[in-house]
Amino acid sequence: GSGKQVRLKECRVMRDFKGAPGNTKGQSLGYAFVEFLDHDPALAALRYVNNNPEIFGPEKRPIVEFSLEDLRKLKIKERRTQRSLEKLKQKQVADQKEKQDRKS
Length: 104
Fold this sequence. Notes:
By secondary structure, the chain is an alpha+beta fold. The protein is 46% helix and 18% strand. The protein has helices spanning 39-49, 53-56, 71-103, and strands at 8-16, 27-36.
């Protein structure tokens, strides 16, 4: 190999949490999303995994493709992340204040 580390931002295996009749809850739906921090390793992974009979066997070959992001959904996700960070900071400040109040 090149010795360069491949960095992932996120990996999600999509699962069936509704538990369709005959399926176990939490069973994989057979697809996932992987977000790489860099394009070149993403392209290399796509080229290696796509239609490769060595992954699951010759009868079940994975189909891999790049996903195009919906800019609106990315903005919503970013706002959600920012709100979560703000709430976390507010909780930390409140916890600190409570600690200080107990010491007084």
